Structure formats: C-alpha cells, structure tokens
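User: Predict the complex.
Assistant: Input components as received:
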Amino acid sequence: MEKQQDPRVLRTRQLIRESFIELLQSIQFESITIKDIAQKATINRATFYTHYEDKYALLDEVIEQAFKEMIPEQVIHAEALTEEIGDQIILLTYRYIVDFHQTCRLDSKSIATLVDSQIKGMLQKTIEDILSKEKENHQYIEILAAITSSAIYSATYQWFRLEKNSHADLLLDIVRPYIMRGLSKQL
Amino acid sequence: MEKQQDPRVLRTRQLIRESFIELLQSIQFESITIKDIAQKATINRATFYTHYEDKYALLDEVIEQAFKEMIPEQVIHAEALTEEIGDQIILLTYRYIVDFHQTCRLDSKSIATLVDSQIKGMLQKTIEDILSKEKENHQYIEILAAITSSAIYSATYQWFRLEKNSHADLLLDIVRPYIMRGLSKQL
DNA sequence: CAGAATATGTTGTTTATACAACTTTTCACT
DNA sequence: AGTGAAAAGTTGTATAAACAACATATTCTG
C-alpha cells in the first residue's frame, strides 16, 4: 500500500505543496505561475514538471491530501452508515468547504467546479467503503454512494453559500433524515 | 566576494542550520547527535559531512551568521569609533549574549568557551575594520582592536551574569568611557 | 572488564535535482 | 492581425544528495 520513496522526492513534493498553499492565500489560482511556485519552493522550474503535470494536478493533490487528513478515524473505520457516522460525514464536508474557502482565493468558477467534483468523488469513495462493509448485496452500492455523497455535498455547499455564519446543527437536521431514509431498506 | 552556489547546497545547509538551532532549544549541545540533525533536516547523515566537518563547525557557522545579522548597518559603515558607535557595539554584544543564552541550552563550559572566543573574534574584526578607516597609522590597530573587543566582551558578559534583569544603560556608562579613553590619542 | 549497542566518519554507486538552451504557447497591445 | 514579451513545457548533461556497506570510536551495561 504505502510505497517507500526517496526522501528527496518527498521533500521536494512537500516544498511544492507548501509553497503552493501559501501562494493560494494571497494570489488567485489562475494568476499563480509555475515560476512562482518553483521560486518559493527553492527548486528549479523544470523539477516541478517531474512531479506534477501542471498546476491543476498539484491542486488536485493538495485538495485530496487536505480532505483525507480531515476525515475522522471513526469514519474511516466505520462498519455501517449510522446516523452518527452520517453526521460526521456531513460536518466533515462542511468544515472542508469552510476551510478551503477561508484559506484559498478561488477566482474562476471553473476552478471551483474542479474542486467540487473532486470532493464529491472523495465523499463518494468514503461512503462507498462504508456501505460495502455494511451491505451484503453489492449491486447498488455505487449508485447509493453516488446519490448520498452528492446529496450531502450539494446541501452542505448551499448551506455554506447562504448561511455562512449559522451553526451547522440545522444542516444536520435537514440532511441526516434525508439520506438515512434514502438508505433505509424500507424504500 | 559573494560566491554563487548551487541552490541545493544553499537549501541543504539552511535546513541543517535551522534544524540544529531548533534542536538547541530543547537539547543540550553535547547531547545532539549528527543523526538527530540529519533526521530533523530530512537529509541523509552522510550528506551532513559534505557540508560540515562536525557539529562544532556547524555551531561556529550558526554563531557567526547570527552575530553578523545582528550588526547594525551604522556599525558596518562606521568611519570612526565614536561614542555612539561604541555604544552600539556594546549593546550589540549584550543583545547577542542574551539572545544566545535564551535560545540555546549550553551545558559544558567548553562550549561556552568556544562561543566566547568566536564572538570576541568577530567583535575584534568589526572594531579593527572601523579603526583602520579612522586611523592613518596602521601599526597598532590590531592590538587596540584586541584590547577594546575583549574589554567590551568581558564587561558585557559579567554584566549579563550578574545583573540579568537590569537595563544596560549603566553598562554603557561603565564601558564607554573606559574604551574611549583607552583609544584616545591623549594616552 | 567484556561485549553490546550506538554514534561517528568514509566510500562507491545510484538517482533526483539544477541548469542552460531550446521550442511552443499564451497574451497584451496599438 | 501581428509582434514582442512572458509563461509553459522539454531535453541533455552535470552534480548534489541518498543510500548501503563498511570501519572505527564511544558509551552503556551486566
């Protein structure tokens, strides 16, 4: 699973990611150049290209890493999608969106769309993992996970856009029953 | 004067110095191993030896760099050792000693001795540079610089050991007339 | 005191990065 | 539209760093 790597590679990639994240705090994504990143990371510009195809690939990795680090242990090891686990996933999504928009200057909607779809993908993967432990029947799990994750994400994103300041309890009360009912065997 | 370097070298040396300084905050110098430094700097232990002969050489460089960065511009460009410049040098010495003992855990006296002699050397060099701009006669400058620098250092160090908390104004009032009279042509 | 463990240095080889010197792409501008 | 400047990529070569393997030295411990 874990591939051991040359420490130089790990360090260089880490430097690139850190520099990129720092740049994102003050410069819009579209305005960041590879030269900027390379300079800040004290690496040669050509070296950047041995690690990332372009800055979009770098953004992908940064988003993915940040999201993965925010997933609570309980969710990772969850054996079933209980109400509690559901709540945690919803809150995770909410915290991620808030964090992301707090620390990054996203300009064009195209970038926001990239980020969106990636988070949705990770959510889906997370939920799929849990459901496949819970359910014997593997047939519809992908579909259930897709529905559930997009439901959670879209609701949370709306919540973020409309009511930035309010507590998330109400969000939970809206989304939780929605997805729990959807996943229940009754339907 | 300034030699341009491979950025990898600069970065590695920087990493080593930073790691070493951080380690010094919590671990006594004698207890720090090359392995510790290499690990913290995320470099290979063998790489350490391509840059520094041992940890004493590293300590030397760190001390020298820190001291140089603390020298005020006015002192660097001083054309004569006036009372004002003298005061600045005394205060510089005091600040350096305080800083150094605040951030580093020095254990054995042998280390303190190393540090002492190096600071004295740098002080001497600084004063010699100023005096050689001021005086036509170059004959005794080295000796005057040696006397003056060691006077300043020893007085300041005593002051630091005995009256850590008190303001340095009194120190100035003691040392300034001492060295100014010593350097005056009257004697 | 012996010997086990740990730290210090050293060396030959492999590999990642630096760099210069390109070509191609993008984009501002009058 | 067309030109010049800046950015994006690419490639060959030189070198710093990684690493393993080794020898020696130091420190710890029963």
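Residues 6, 8-9, 12, 43-47, 50 of chain B lie near DNA strand D (CB under 10 Å from a C1').
Let me know if you want any component modeled separately.
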